[in-house]
UniProtKB/TrEMBL annotation:
InterPro entries in alphabetical order: aa-tRNA-synth_I_CS, aa-tRNA-synth_Ia, Leu-tRNA-ligase, Leu_tRNA-synth_edit, M/V/L/I-tRNA-synth_anticd-bd, Rossmann-like_a/b/a_fold, tRNAsynth_Ia_anticodon-bd, Val/Leu/Ile-tRNA-synth_edit
EC number, as in UniProt: 6.1.1.4
Cellular localisation: Cytoplasm
Keyword Protein biosynthesis appears in the UniProt entry: yes
Origin species: Aeoliella mucimassa
Enzyme class of the recorded protein, top EC level: ligase
Protein's recorded name: Leucine--tRNA ligase
């Protein structure tokens, strides 16, 4: 009884594909051949194995790839593992077993499960980010980030004076120029305050901290200063924002990236504060102020703020006349200088307290505003009036210039602050008509804040100007006077790139030591030919609760290399898990290359990724970091195009049966192994695609799985004679030609499935195939010319059963490269459609017309109908309404 039995046919075909390397991708597409690079977000191989969310996206790309091969494209469809990360290290801490052991076990489980689902990956291209030969190139890319163009020149023995350093930098002297060169590095060290998570024993990136807790594990996070490696992603902010235009991504994900990058356009303005004795200017320094403004109007606005000014950033230069105080961040370098003796104690105390708070705590709107007066004043460049300078922690040192002019009448935070500290509130914008007369009066009296645009008041010659016009005018004036200029700021912060963990890529960096074993401050990059820097053997994985990395406990041979007689200490921080996923899509293309991360010709042939599918949770982290690295590699000539992922699709979340998120604690997790055991991989694949649109959130249903399983059983019986003893063709299969109705069903199905696959609309494609099976199950004779193309259409979705049926139909090779079925458009079209014909608005009859019948053809079909002819005969036609494809209405009189 040859029943449909996935348990026998699935392993059979998986073994066949494996042995024959059926899905090996060519090194490059053939001359003139179209290519498809379809990429899945590679999994983190956790100890739990695959969950049903993984096969959702993986099946979608697999269908696309399998159809593309049959359509003659060269297909790149690789898989790998994002295998650095905390859990393996935590397991090592508990058991003392090296993280590599557990990682390899987990990878083996994932690989088995992925193979069990019949995905058409080219397994010879598999990579894991923890492979030494892989992270050798991750380290190589880090060196590209660390390197500057100037390093190369220096290596060629050219002194700094011969380098292409801008003139204005050279004028500042050689020391300055050297520092400047260092500042051009995209990888640099900094000891900024960091998010230290004692429970995880690591520093976290801002992106990994949510409401003061770690994203992973929900542990408290505190702020402390620490030497860290940073990547200057901010240098790419503008391009990361602008190049989103080039991409075929959903508007939702683009918007998330844009918000994260947070481009803001405004102006920088210099407020005079004087220097030395006169520091903290008041109106008494007006003579000095006048001579300064005169110099400024001659020299123009300097790139870096000069000592006698406080530089601020504002998005509302049109409110300059309403600035009633200024605020500098507690970390601002001018705090000491501008604080007068009377205020020193209060200011110091305030700054110490602010250092303990996170940026989020400091800037939240609802929080009570705090601050202290420095005792000093700055001079407002538009009217020469003194403005008191305060220190307050709602201004962040890391944004803009770390200093603001405060306009309480038109900014909410400033309004709250001014109310709290009794600072004058001066309205300079007349509210628009959308504000009630009552509220407008309050706004003008400084009793209510107004943040919208409007018309300028109390602003001297600018009165009457609309906000946008005023902004442009005043910015131009400031520019002319050398007092300000247009400026752009980004919310994006530099990327904190070091972790105090063991299980990550070591940095290829050496710190020079002096004779006493202290760091000299000189840093050396590990020479390219000495890569990779492998992780050392460690006996003790336990974190010590201090932020020094575990690699500090590495054996001396690893930790203290001597090169050319100089002793060094290796960098002991490791890279974050994001590093490995920043470029894996490149390595798949050339995984064995020992000379370079990727061969340029191969890169050019396959990149960019044509379809990237994965979860929406990666909207800002992985997808932004990878774009950043790609752009750096582009600038360094390693890759040939500015963006890595041309089309991005986010699969929707799969919920539990009860519509709740699947989780261990809710006990509603579905294990793909169990589903495959009961119904087979083809049913799991088909079900996950049939649940609904790929991008929608949808609940699991075992009944649904059983439904698609039954469908596959019907498809099986269409081809196979289940009553026979041996596997063979059903007696209904015939070599006779198909009749018209059968042909129409076939061609409609081919067209619909072809289009649906192209649009990633897999659920509707499956529905069409179900209709096909229903139709042919009722036919006495099933022509081979109909059922063979159907098996090919089914194969990307349910590849195992399709291969088996193909074999039963008498073919002896895999169908993976069979030409994709073609449809005849005239047969795929509906023959005719029915259109209601009304007389005086009442439907009297229906007529058959071609689906693309135009106005004339539709009208004549209606007139030709005997009933209509009789009803309008001899009457006056007042009006005739013809909507092709919809209806005809004769309005008649008499
Ligand atoms: C005066 C003003 C008047 C402002 C007004 C707003 C409204 P974006 O870029 O859109 O977030 N600001 C500037 N630097 C800051 C810092 N380091 N910390 C906290 N706040 C800062 O907003 C920029 C505005 O945020 C700037 O424009 C400044 O306040 C404030 F009616 O300047 B504004």
């Amino acid at each position: 009884m040859p029943r449909y039995n996935p348990a026998t046919i699935e392993p059979k075909w998986q073994a066949f594909w494996d042995e024959n390397k059926t899905f090996a991708a060519p090194a490059k597409p053939a001359e003139g051949q179209a290519k498809l690079y379809a990429l899945d977000m590679f999994p983190y191989p956790s100890g739990n194995g695959l969950h049903v969310g993984h096969p959702e996206g993986y099946t979608a790309t697999d269908i696309t790839c399998r159809a593309a091969r049959m359509q003659g494209k060269a297909v790149m469809h690789p898989m790998g593992f994002d295998s650095f990360g905390l859990p393996a290290e935590e397991h090592a801490i508990k058991t003392g077993e090296h993280p590599r052991v557990q990682t390899e076990q987990n990878i083996a489980t994932f690989r088995r499960q992925l193979k069990m689902l019949g995905f058409s990956y080219d397994w010879d291209r598999e990579i894991a980010t923890t492979d030494v030969e892989y992270f050798r190139w991750t380290q190589w890319i880090f060196l590209k980030l660390y390197d500057t163009w100037f390093d190369k020149e220096q290596q060629r023995g050219r002194s700094i004076g011969e380098l292409e350093v801008p003139e204005h930098v050279m004028e500042m002297g050689e020391d300055f120029a050297r520092t400047w060169v260092d500042e051009q590095r995209l990888a640099f060290q900094s000891s900024a305050p960091v998010n230290w998570c004692p429970a995880l024993g690591t520093v976290l990136a801002n992106e990994e901290v949510i409401d003061g807790k770690s994203e992973r594990g929900d542990h408290p996070v505190v702020r402390m200063p620490l030497r860290q490696w940073m990547l200057r992603i901010t240098a790419y902010a503008e391009r990361l924002e602008k190049d989103l235009e080039l991409l075929d991504w959903s508007e939702g994900i683009k918007a998330l990236q844009r918000n994260w990058i947070g481009k803001s356009t405004g102006a920088e303005v210099d407020f005079y504060v004087g220097t030395g004795e006169s520091s903290g200017a008041t109106s008494s320094v007006s003579a000095e102020y006048k001579s300064w403004t005169k110099t400024r109007s001659e020299t123009g606005y300097p790139e870096k703020p000069t000592d006698e000014v406080l530089r601020i950033y504002t998005t509302r230069p049109d409110t300059l006349y309403g600035a009633t105080y200024m605020v500098i961040a507690p970390e601002h370098p001018y705090v000491d200088r501008l604080t007068t003796a009377d205020n020193a104690k209060a200011v110091n105390k305030y700054c110490e307290a602010a250092a303990m708070k996170s940026d989020l705590d400091r800037t939240e709107l609802a929080k009570e505003k705090t601050g202290v007066f420095t005792g000093s004043y700055a001079i407002n460049p538009v009217n020469g009036e003194p403005v008191p300078i305060w220190v307050a922690d709602y201004v962040l040192i890391s944004y803009g210039t770390g200093a603001i002019m405060a306009v309480p009448a038109h900014d909410e935070r400033d309004f709250e602050f001014a109310q709290q500290f009794n600072i004058p509130i001066k309205a300079v914008i007349q509210p628009g008509d959308h504000v009630s007369a009552e509220d407008a009066a309050k706004i003008l009296a400084g009793e209510m804040v107004y943040t919208d645009p409007g018309m300028a008041i109390n602003s001297s010659d600018y009165n009457g100007l609309k906000t946008e016009e005023f902004k442009a005018k005043i910015t131009a004036w400031l520019d002319e006077q050398g007092l300000g200029r247009q400026a752009v700021n980004y919310k994006l912060r530099d990327w904190l790139f070091s972790r105090q963990r063991f299980w990550g890529e070591p940095f290829p960096i050496l710190h020079e030591l002096d004779d006493e074993g202290n760091k000299t401050g000189h840093i050396m990059a590990v020479p390219e030919e000495d890569l990779p820097v492998d992780l050392p053997h460690l006996d003790d994985f336990k974190p010590h609760g201090r932020p020094e990395p575990p690699l500090d406990k590495a054996p001396n041979e690893w930790l203290y290399p001597v090169i050319d007689g100089v002793k060094y200490k290796r960098e002991t921080n490791t890279m974050p898990q994001w590093a490995g996923s920043c470029w894996y899509y490149l390595r798949y293309l050339d995984p064995e290359n020992t000379e370079a991360p990727i061969d340029p010709e191969i890169e050019k042939a396959w990149m960019p990724v044509d379809l990237y599918v994965g979860g929406a949770e990666h909207a800002v982290l992985h997808l932004l970091y990878a774009r950043f690295w790609h752009k750096v590699l582009y600038d360094r000539g390693v890759v040939s195009a500015p963006e890595p992922f041309q089309k991005l699709v986010n699969q929707g979340m799969i919920l539990g049966e009860n519509n709740e998120k699947m989780s261990k604690s809710r006990g509603n997790v579905i294990n793909p192994d169990d589903v495959v055991q009961e119904y087979g991989a083809d049913s799991l694949r088909l079900y996950e695609m049939f649940m609904g649109p790929l991008e929608a959130t949808k609940p699991w249903s075992m009944q649904g799985v059983s439904g698609v399983y039954n469908f596959l059983g019907r498809a099986w019986r269409l081809v196979v004679d289940e009553r026979a003893d041996e596997l063979g063709l059903a007696p209904s299969i015939t070599d006779e030609p198909a009749n018209e109705a059968q042909l129409r069903t076939l061609h409609k199905t081919i067209q619909a499935v072809t289009d649906d696959i192209a649009n990633l609309s897999f659920n509707t494609a499956i529905a069409r195939m179900m209709e096909f099976v229903n139709f042919f199950t009722k036919e006495k004779q099933v022509p081979r010319t109909c059922v063979e193309p159907f098996v090919l259409l089914l194969s990307p979705f349910a590849p195992h059963i399709a291969e088996e049926l193909w074999q039963v139909l008498g073919h002896d090779d895999t169908l993976a490269y069979e030409p994709w079925p073609q449809f005849d458009a005239s047969l795929a079209k509906d023959e005719s459609i029915e259109i209601p014909v009304q007389v005086n608005g009442k439907v009297k009859t229906k007529v058959q017309v071609a689906p693309d019948a135009d106005k004339e053809a539709t009208e004549s079909a209606a007139r030709a109908d005997a009933k209509v002819a009789e009803l309008i005969d001899g009457k006056e036609l007042v009006k005739l309404i013809v909507v092709p494809g919809k209806l005809v209405n004769f309005v008649v009189k008499g």
